[in-house]
Amino acid sequence: MQTATPAPRKAPRPRADALRNRERIVTAAREMFVEHGPEVPLDDIARRAGVGNATVYRNFPDRDALVREVVCSVLDRTVAAGELALAETGDAFEALERFVHTSADERISALCPMVSSTFDENHPDLEAARERVERILQEVMDRAKAAGQLRPDVGVGDVMVAVAQLSRPPAGTACFSADSFVHRHLQLFLDGLRAPARSALPGAAVTMEDLRQA
To answer: Which residues form the HTH tetR-type domain (predicted)?
Structure first.
């Protein structure tokens, strides 16, 4: 007599309210990390999110996990902005512009240094998110160059450095007071990327590998 093998049980899907709570926590953490830096008390994040402390710890066992989720989420939204612009218009330079301005809106220059300076920057989730950013930016820039829209002597690293520098200050140092001119300066930078180039740049185009080795 054979015993029937029980069918494997499917993992239960998170309830809608649990997903909403997680999203509220990540949103509140992003806001408070930008305002106060990565050491803001988790109790304060829970209060801003409108959830209990236990809910925060149930979703994120430690501060490292929460910071990582915040950084990955902003990187993914930046990628999505570039992809959406390509899908909507097919205009590679417009996709590059949207990528750059979204990076500033998402406070990448404030959030990403938290990982490299305080937490595990080599976590697989972070590496995967960074790879997605580099991939879409490289694709957008390659297409813009092929269309004659983007000067040929710039690299992905050039764009990432400029975005980080022009959208400062970092977290906790009057980040929001810079909003009135950040996008103005970013657009000046973007206009300087358009082909044909009006001058020769010193040195070679900067790659992401160059930045990692710097």
So the answer is: 19-78
Whole-model pTM: value is 0.79
Site of tokens 């930016």: 137
Tens-digit pLDDT string for the chain (214 aa): 454 555 555 555 557 788 899 999 999 999 898 888 888 899 999 999 999 999 999 999 988 899 889 989 989 988 898 889 888 888 999 999 999 999 888 887 777 666 665 567 788 988 898 899 999 999 999 999 999 999 999 999 999 888 888 876 555 555 555 566 888 989 999 999 999 998 999 999 998 888 888 7
Spatial distance between the Cα atoms of 89 and 95, rounded to a whole number of angstroms: 8
The answer to whether the CB of 33 falls within 8 A of the CB of 40 is yes
Report the distance separating Cα 27 and Cα 65, nearest Å: 14
Residue corresponding to tokens 């973007």? 190
Is residue 98 within 8 A of residue 149, CB to CB? The reply is no
Torsion of CA 13, 18, 23, 28, to 10 degrees: -160
